[in-house]
UniProtKB/TrEMBL annotation:
Organism: Trichococcus palustris
The name this protein goes by in its record: Lipoprotein
Domain of life per record: Bacteria
Amino acid sequence: MKKNKVFTYLLVLFGLILLGGCTATVERKTETVKEALVGHWVNTMGSPDYYFTETKLIKMEDNGTKTEMTYVVVESNDKDNTMTIRTTDSKGGEEDKKIEFATDKKTMKETSYILGVESGTQDYTYVDSKTKP
């Protein structure tokens, strides 16, 4: 009987440790605009969601359409909290995006350019550190 009690306590303790490990959050790095970009961003108008790594971007539309792209940083300015990236999709299509972060880097304004012509502006809010949907 005593062995069962010890086993039960150990099992509960193990479960609590496992649960604690699953809910641990990763602290977000925001010292530079390049670091601040990494993670999951949601469009304030609803769609699309962005998932950034250091070199890749996944764009998820509300209807489930998923577009995977790579990007390079064209320029960045940590003092002004701005950066410009050039995205390239799987067909070779390129688009420049100027990103302006708020001071706390929890929101950003994205202005897109195609062939140097502004094609739209959207606002995004940082959600979490996920880099994949």
